[in-house]
Sequence to fold (244 residues):
Amino acid sequence: MGVIVVDGVPGFRDVGGIPASGGVIRAGRLFRSGHLAAVGAGGADVVRSRVRRIVDLRADDEVSEDATAVDGVAITRLPLYLGSTRSFFVEDYSLGEIYAHLLSRSSAQLVEAVRIIAEGEPTLVHCTAGKDRTGVTIALALSAVGADREAVVADYALTADLIPAEHRRATSARLAEKYPGSRHAWMLATESPAEVMRDTLAALDAEWGSAADYLRAHGVTSDELAALRDALLSPADPSEGASS
Fold:
């Protein structure tokens, strides 16, 4: 995994290098980040030099407020939240409940995101903070090709560490004022606890068998799963096993 400093873009990173069954996740194929609305000219150049496809998981109102400031890259919009994001704060959902909601209610969008990744072009997946919608999508794609579970969880957990401390404090204070009765608002906005993603993936396995089985159940073919493996997996170096 490699964090890449991109001016104005939170949490931009390449998930390549994560160990997987029979190999590792290829570098330069799958990236993740927060929104690209505040990217500077230099940052936009960095994005364009690495990425050929962008999958934007944000809702219409989010895109209207913070339009992507990178041109020259194909963008596919796949809004994962069906309805207003505000409802999650009002109803005081936990992170785990939101992730379960995404997997049960936004399966068509998740499948389409995986199909785009399977095309093999360098692809950036992002939402607003690059944490929840992006986290579930990336974890699903990586898990479907046999990525190491704890490495997938660690990649998700890294997200909160990449949110500047002052932003986290300001966001927490604003949400506490806006939703005084909420027990989960601060965590929804600023945290990415490892145990939440670990539990989410365990629940996925318990219900569907595996991430790949979840995708199959929602219309992904064996050929498409093979294409996803080809796109994301790099075979292990035989010399590493020989020298150990």
About this structure: The chain has one domain: 2-230. Residues 2-230 form a domain with the Protein-Tyrosine Phosphatase; Chain A fold (CATH 3.90.190.10). Residues 31 and 103 are 21 Å apart (CA to CA). The chain has 13 helices and nine strands.
